[in-house]
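G., the chain you wanted modeled:
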Amino acid sequence: MIVEGSDDLFSVVGIMRAHIQWPDGKEHRPVEIEIGKSAEEILEPGYVTGKLKGRELRTLGVMFDANGNPKGRYERLRRSCLGLFPDMPEELPKTGLVLENGDQKRFGVWIMPDNIATGELETFLRYLVPDLSEPIWKYAAECVTTARDLGAECRETHIPKARLYTWLAWQDPPGYSPGIALTKKILDPHSPHASIFVAWFRDLYQL
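Predicted structure as tokens:
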């Protein structure tokens, strides 16, 4: 599986570890996750298809942020992959994409947060905040807004990340990364909002 960064990698592991066996040793992990550095690199023509053409590879999943253009990013990926997966649909299913071609290669796509909305990993993780912590989350969001009003140099596109890390700073202990927060159940990997992603992952990798 190819993801954008280390937070994406450890978030996937933190979620899936709550649903399937995921040993610590790299050689025993059910899925190898590779960091592709950025969505732009993942979407570069030839990058994904080059991976899919590898003799040893049977299943490949890609996961990247929608940011402001989920449809455009999916269309770029689709154009690149149609030669290998001619049945790739024009629109990304809201439950994520899983395909198998005539060479028995399996290919999956998930665009954060939910294959439809604009946003990113942190937008998805926001919905794994436990219900009991919802008042604290709302206050964290208000604090980010106030800080920006006072001159904090937080770009609008980074607001979801600022809100999540503000909320994580108020947990006990403070400042866990998202992946550890999922492992420690500070973020809830069993949230209904995670269930569609979990189902997609298990279907793709036949777990």
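The longest helix spans residues 134-149.

Shout if anything looks off.
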